[in-house]
Design a protein that fits this description.
Elements (H helix, E strand, L loop, with lengths): L1 H14 L6 E9 L6 E10 L6 E11 L5 H14 L7 E5 L4 H4 L3
Parallel strand pairs: 1-4
Antiparallel strand pairs: 1-2, 2-3
Length: 105
């Protein structure tokens, strides 16, 4: 499983810098048994070779603090930096219905 993750990480990190633009979707959910909250980010782009929409789930992080606007924005920036996702290439960020994510836009 770790090798598969490593292979996909390498593949995604090779794809992302070559994209002209992309959108992001964000989601926050809470695991009911542990009440741990998570934030997830997905990158969406149009593949220039076959003109198909593609999506890459690139980040899921446990949230250790309250879901403040500042904290969620910091988590999102850190995940994007780790994957070399450039703010100038982001066309739009689509939030879920979680209030702290909706306030980011």
């Amino acid at each position: 499983m770790e090798q598969k993750y490593s292979d996909l990480t390498t593949k995604f990190k090779d794809i992302i810098p070559n994209l002209r633009g992309y959108s992001l979707s964000a989601d926050i959910w809470t695991q009911s048994k542990t009440t741990t909250s998570y934030v997830g980010l997905t990158l969406h782009y149009l593949d220039d070779q076959d003109m198909e929409m593609r999506s890459l789930q690139f980040g899921v992080e446990a949230l250790e603090k309250l879901h403040s606007k500042k904290y969620i924005a910091q988590q999102r920036r850190e995940m994007c930096a780790e994957w070399n996702i450039l703010a100038e290439k982001v066309i739009i960020i689509v939030p879920d219905n979680e209030e702290s994510i909706k306030r980011l836009h």
